[in-house]
Amino acid sequence: MATPGRGLAKGLAVTLRTMTRRSHTAHYPEAQPALPPRSRGVIALFEENCTVCMLCARECPDWCIYIDSHKETVPPAAPGGRERSRNVLDRFAIDFALCMYCGICIEVCPFDALFWSPEFEYATEDIRELTHERDKLREWMWTVPAPPALDPAAEEPKEVAAARKAVEKAATEASS
Ligand code: SF4
Ligand code: SF4
């Protein structure tokens, strides 16, 4: 048979125990949380790298990436060559009211145009303001942490090698 008042005593013991523990509550915004540098705060767009391939918009499970573009004809690179067409970005927006921060868009982007920024202070009372348009997404790029340093033993990245060769070639031409 249960002792009368045993449940009450157990409950009070829990209350006493937790009363003496240090609180984990931070007084935000006076005290800023110490978040890991690569926290998933907001998505930044490096639009110079975006080729409007639409992969991110197609793979987003929430359908919250909106992209508009048009085609533009580019003159041939050499005389007698064929004209080429390329996609020009008109709109790139992410609705953070729908986004579930899964990171799929960043993972699938083949051109390194999307990045996580740890910035999280963009709460608003107007839900429409949670749709961040291209300029705002580009601004978030300034808050993206720099990538970790390369392994010293790693192969030189292609773009770095190409830039180095171009500088060396220009220096050789200038000196001859
Ligand atoms: S993080 Fe996920 S839900 Fe948010 S925009 Fe990217 S793919 Fe969509
Ligand atoms: S996957 Fe990358 S390159 Fe393609 S549309 Fe999205 S951001 Fe642009």
Quick summary:
The protein contains five helices and five strands.
Radius of gyration: 26 Å
Structural class by SSE content: alpha+beta
Largest sheet: 3 strands, antiparallel
State the CATH topology. Answer: Alpha-Beta Plaits
- Which cofactors or ions or other ligands sit in this model? iron/sulfur cluster
In the CATH scheme, the class would be Alpha Beta
Could you estimate the helical fraction of the residues in percent? 25-40%
Mean pLDDT equals 92
End-to-end Cα distance: 102 Å
Total number of strands: 5
Total count of domains? 1
List low-pLDDT spans.
none
CATH architecture: 2-Layer Sandwich
| Spatial strand order of the main sheet | 2-3-5
Shape: elongated
Q: Secondary-structure element sequence?
A: HEHEEHEEHH
How large a portion of the residues is in β-strands, by DSSP E? 15-25%
Number of helices: 5
What distinguishing features does this structure have?
Alpha-Beta Plaits, elongated, 176 residues, binds iron/sulfur cluster, alpha+beta
